[in-house]
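Open question from group meeting: does this chain pack into something compact, or does most of it stay loose? Before anyone orders reagents, we agreed to write out a predicted structure and look at it together. Recording both the input and the output here so the notebook holds the full record.
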Amino acid sequence: MSLQLQVVPVTPFQQNCSVIWCDVTRRAAVVDAGGDIDRILAFVREHGLTVEKLLLTHGHIDHAGGARALADALGVRIEGPQRAESFWLDQLPSQGTMFGFPRSEPLTPERWLEEGDTVTVGEEVLDVLHCPGHTPGHVVFVSHAANLCIVGDVLFQGSIGRTDFPMGNHQQLIEAIRGKLFALPDDMVVVPGHGPFTTIGEERRSNPFVADRRYG
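Structure tokens returned:
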């Protein structure tokens, strides 16, 4: 396995910003740069990585608030989320005001992502799943080679993403988890947007929101 991952917790919400990189090329991507970009840059420099792009799972401030500033500092593109997420990315300034975050300007990525797309990091390839419900344009990044998925705020250890925000949809979220994430291997590592890692199988067996004997 040449894809490596390290979480760099950012923002007062302790969001799991993930730095992923190809061990062969030392080329990297930063997933969900919500803020604290000096901390992210320090990790990248310490490990001798070359960031080639930023990836976004969705447009909430703790996941996307630092993305444009970091992309500009590194001179790289932002890829993702799915284009329905413009609803939230356009509201980054008001989100920042609401939660007391530093101001972030509205953001439009250089590349919107759709179900079935892939993104590259060095020589590594990740599949894109569109998993709406928490937000309308939420995407998940899956590395079959490394046996891990970066799921943002879709699925957590023993929990699921909130759906009481504007444009949230509980039924869509449940369908995305059961229909798409639970189709992945049981031993695949789940990297959520907050909290500890888990596995697909563990959540399929015991998550009180989505576990079902048909999936266990």
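Observations to bring back to the group:
The CA atoms of residues 116 and 192 lie 21 Å apart.
The chain has a mean pLDDT of 96.
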